[in-house]
Amino acid sequence: MTLRSAQWTWFTLTLLAFGLSWLAPIWPFEQALHSSLTVVALGLMIWLIQTRQLSLRAFALFAVFIMVHCLASRWLYSNVPYDAWLMAVLNTNTAELFGWQRNHFDRLVHLLYGLCLTPGLVERARAYSVVKPSAPFWRAFALILMSSLAYEWLEWLVAVLLDPADAEAYNGQQGDWWDAHKDMALAGLGALLWWPWLRRGPGTPTTK
């Protein structure tokens, strides 16, 4: 299978996940707000395939992140019923295992943002001349943090324009005043987990 064929396969899976997330939507308005960025991401994926900007690994990780985001968008992040799923499969839940009272699926998505997007950002940074071998990684890390901050600002702006009930449903802070700070920290942590592997090496995509 060629690089482009494999990437089209990942795109198809992502598009399927997006479509399935819209079957009988529970909160259509709020889900549409979250899904607006998914539509942008799908367009970006098509462009990446056509221009062969990323390796298969980086593209697949990006696709995985978008698919998880589709799942989170359907349930507005803070309502993903993973405890019910755990109870049905393992007869336990996170409250019993870890003492959690908060739905932490949004934390997982922010962690995956840094974990899944960093390899692709490093690859693109390496396409330009740099002085130090580690510079592409730190550029990617900085971009993860800056884009996370921009997203939190966007969430704040949307919340300002909505009524309080809709704003809480969209933001999913669940009463945590430090929610934005923790989300950005987890995105940064996800990026830093790649440091031992991405600080050196070519990491450039191959074309077939």
From TrEMBL:
<protein>
    <submittedName>
        <fullName>DUF2238 domain-containing protein</fullName>
    </submittedName>
</protein>
<feature type="transmembrane region" description="Helical">
    <location>
        <begin position="56"/>
        <end position="77"/>
    </location>
</feature>
<keyword id="KW-0472">Membrane</keyword>
<keyword id="KW-0812">Transmembrane</keyword>
<keyword id="KW-1133">Transmembrane helix</keyword>
<feature type="transmembrane region" description="Helical">
    <location>
        <begin position="33"/>
        <end position="49"/>
    </location>
</feature>
<dbReference type="InterPro" id="IPR014509">
    <property type="entry name" value="YjdF-like"/>
</dbReference>
<dbReference type="Pfam" id="PF09997">
    <property type="entry name" value="DUF2238"/>
</dbReference>
